[in-house]
Amino acid sequence: MLGPVASSSPDPDPASPDPSNPPASAAGDAAQRRSERRALLRDAAYEAERNTGERERTDEEARRGVIARLAIISLGTVVTIAGLAMLVLPGPGIVVVIAGLGILATEVAWAERLLAYAKRKANVDKITAQAPWVKPVSIVVAVIGVVVSIVYAVRWR
Q1: Is the pLDDT confidence value at 67 over 60?
Q2: Could you tell me if 97 and 83 are in contact, meaning their C-beta atoms sit under 8 angstroms apart?
Q3: Do residues 95 and 83 make contact, with C-beta atoms less than 8 angstroms apart?
Q4: Residue from 40, 60, 35 nearest 50 by CA
Q5: For the chain, first and last CA: distance in Å?
Q6: DSSP assigned state of 10
Q7: Rounded-to-integer distance, Cα 108 and Cα 115, Å
Q8: Would you list the DSSP string of 99-149?
Q9: How many Å apart are CA 69 and CA 71, to the nearest integer?
Q10: What is the spatial distance between Cα 70 and Cα 57, in angstroms, rounded to a whole number?
């Protein structure tokens, strides 16, 4: 007589988890870790906001400060990227880059250093150092242009 047939695969141990089917608690653990990490980052951001000079008395004031700072950084980033695009597309590229870096420089130190470099490269100091007669002449030409435009529009409608 033949004895019991031996199976080629051992019986799965009920205590060991199946790697292809993770238990439902693993997803819950990952969500819990993400939630704890968010809370830790939020607390760190509030503490950093409180230590930036002006002391916020409540978490709400600190949260508003963090949100305002993030909004300024986001706006500065968008303006800077638009300026970089305008370097190869039509538009006042370097002016917009400098404006974007100026916005960013109010919040981050590296943007302030990059702004100084961009101003040096754009020769801003040479451009702003004009002869004293240039500004009044420009104003007079602009006023004459506006007056001529109004007269033309009124007379030849």
Answers
A1: yes
A2: yes
A3: yes
A4: 60
A5: 116
A6: P
A7: 11
A8: HHHHHHHTT-HHHHHHHHHHHHHHTHHHHH---TTHHHHHHHHHHHHHHHH
A9: 5
A10: 20
SS3 8: coil
Q: Three-state DSSP class for 11?
A: coil
Two tokens at 58? 């409540």
This model's pTM is above 0.85: no
Q: How far apart are CA 112 and CA 129, in angstroms?
A: 22
Q: What length does the chain have?
A: 157
pLDDT in tens, 118-136: 778 777 666 666 777 888 8
Cα four-point dihedral sign 114, 120, 124, 125: positive
Q: How far apart are CA 57 and CA 27, in angstroms?
A: 37
Q: Which two tokens stand for residue 157?
A: 């409608």
How many CA within 13 A on the CB side of residue 146? 6
Hunting for tokens 């939630």 — which residue is that?
Answer: 35
Whole-angstrom Cα distance, residue 36 to residue 32?
A: 6
Query: Could you give the CA distance from residue 126 to residue 43 in angstroms, rounded to a whole number?
Result: 47
